[in-house]
């Protein structure tokens, strides 16, 4: 009896952290996807800027679409900054003098010296802090607060006085740049390692 009570408590606590349903329909069998015309339209994506019905694996049937959009925007924004930082380091940009152990490193070779120096441990602490703070907004969004995916209150002045069509155009530009940045960062890292040369890495 005690074992059943413990299992029930564990199951209940686990379900508290499960993503909430997004309240939309699932995959529509009649309508076809715009992006992949031979597949059904994933109707969970309807109404999201830049979606175009692209979900060949049906991921939006298992996770809230707001959560997926939040994830895409977050990773895209990080990759935009990461591409710029990766290239800037290889072009010689420095914010402050580097310690002797970090002299002459490139973006591709900086990992081990940075671990030895301790700067990556420092970075981990800051990243953990930002992730915990960001999860508060995500958790509230998944519970129906009305918060838009990726909205942390920054840059909203650019949307003031604009029509809904103009706002959607800005959102489309952002998600397009986010997707391009994710591909670009993967490409720049791969090319810099394969060719072992500085920018432009060939």
From TrEMBL:
GO terms for biological process: photosynthesis. Residues 1-16 form the signal peptide. Its main location: plastid. Pfam families: Chloroa_b-bind (PF00504). It is found in: Plastid, Chloroplast. The light-harvesting complex (LHC) functions as a light receptor, it captures and delivers excitation energy to photosystems with which it is closely associated. Energy is transferred from the carotenoid and chlorophyll C (or B) to chlorophyll A and the photosynthetic reaction centers where it is used to synthesize ATP and reducing power. Belongs to the fucoxanthin chlorophyll protein family. This is Uncharacterized protein.
